[in-house]
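Hi support team,

I submitted a single chain yesterday and got back a structure, but I'm not sure I'm reading the token output correctly. Could someone confirm the output below corresponds to the sequence I sent? I've pasted both exactly as they appear in my results page.

Thanks,
R.
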Amino acid sequence: MRNSALTDEILMQVEQPARYIGNEINSTMKDKSKIDLRFAFCFPDVYEVGMSHLGIKILYEMFNKRSDVWCERVFSPWPDLASIMKERGIPLFALESQDPISEFDFLGITLQYEMCYTNILQALDLSGIPFHSTDRREEDPIVVGGGPCAYNPEPVAEFFDLFYIGEGEKQYDRLFDLYISMKKGGSYSRREFLRKAAAIPGIYVPCLYHVSYSEDGTIEDFSPTEDGLPEKIMRQVEMDMDHAPYPMKPVIPYVRSTQDRVVLEVMRGCIRGCRFCQAGMVYRPCRQKSLDVLKKYAVELFRNTGYDEISLSSLSTSDFEELPEFLDFLIEECDRRRINITLPSLRIDAFSLDVMSKVQDVRKSSLTFAPEAGSQRMRDVINKGLTTEEIMKGASDAFLGGWKKVKLYFMLGLPTETEDDMRQIPDLAQEIAHLYYETLPDKATRGGRCQITISTSFFVPKPFTPFQWAAMCPAEEYLRRARIVNHRMKEEPNHKCLSYQWHEAKTTVLEGVFARGDRKISRVIEYAYRHGACFDAWNEFFRPEIWDMAFTACGVDPDFYTLRKRELDEILPWDFIDTGVSRRFLENEWKKATGEMTVTPNCRNSCSGCGCTRFCSGVCVAGK
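Hi R., thanks for writing in. Yes, this is the structure output for that exact sequence:
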């Protein structure tokens, strides 16, 4: 049944009305009178982006397997509908029942990237839920945050009642059981529930922790306000990948989503240990699904979805130990069913290219390599583990295999970067372009000019990485570095084969503030939202002048969070979280990157000394 407030007249005024009507294939409908807990799962971005996210699919099916819980979905209304809802007083609603979010027991919001923070306030605003946890009434939903950005929840801590730190499969059942038992037993109060929830491993309740600041603005103390609360919040990790929940009947959108295909997760974690990569640190250790389980899942997903494409999901698909055998199975199965295979996150090596040549149309596709830095020196600083020789060998194999379009991803502004390192980005692209003509000297064999696309993002230090102490650059400096790359590229002999694009610098700086911010940032976010900021991840809606005004009005200096190098003994806003990777390990990796410590030989056969033995399962989870 469609929300009566969303009349045909309203739906005809908005882009993609199918985003809001629900009733998609495989969506879950339940009788409200027969359930004890209603959970609205919000992805704070547009429907097409949210419906592509694997995590929401996993938890949606997991929650709905419980007979006493009904999980529904909600996404950020696009600005066209959001303005109508504000003007006419239409509350934010869930897709399945079309009921207002204010009627739910929980509002769960996944935090996948920092630039969605104003969308969180949009969801609360349209739902009629007070922005601050301390202002909420007994009948308001419990607002839960989770996802990668929850590894530093402090910039948005005031907007949430609790955060779930880690992988959702582990403790949500325990949280739901607590809520239901308190409601049925007549002992429920909002405060008492939050107090008891704080005792569940992985649950962080911000209002039960106090933070104080020194005169210089750094954190002086962070501690629980009551006895019995944990001083450290332990990240929750699902170790048994074969028996972990996985969506066998994902919801099929009416609107084409960003990833409009079957997505099959083959492993979690990464063995690479790049020093800039938060995902590579917080998703340790490396855990794989078995071949038999993957085969079963693939067939069932084909049967239940009708998609004509499958993608294998992981941080580094090439490192999945049983990939060759699984691909042999998939190629045969997909050929019979006329289903395409896509393989992201592959290394630059002969095996990966051989695999891709079997599953991809090499004449149309482009290959993506991520050297991250142009010079070998910088690749060593970031612990990329990739030599120039390996890059050139991979490019040569690609050209011989029929590819002539290559995308190269780099970062500018990395710690210790010099102008020579910057210039070597287009130099490397030029070498690859030159290699194309060397590898295929015959014009008829080449079939046209090669196309090398250089793309640079700007470095943002993230919590729980060895670079969490690093300083960023001002927006103007990032752009200056991009101009150095651009100018150098135009000097190259084969520059007509090269093209260059770079990220938005002001967005990068704001992301950097959010990534390492503390609770003082929440008032900046609230001010910006109240003055028109929303959908900041979208270039067409990002308005930097609003954020400049917000920082000034709130008396917060963004340079304090971006340009300042942290001292190793400083209390960082996220230090109360234990991800299982020791601070000593991160400090040592930072010292190696900056030359303060001599790099020791790799420790592939032993975790001793890496500081993260708690999650070791035979492979050094430090990525060494």
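A quick pointer for reading it: The first strand starts at residue 37 and ends at 43. Let us know if anything else looks off.

Best,
Support desk
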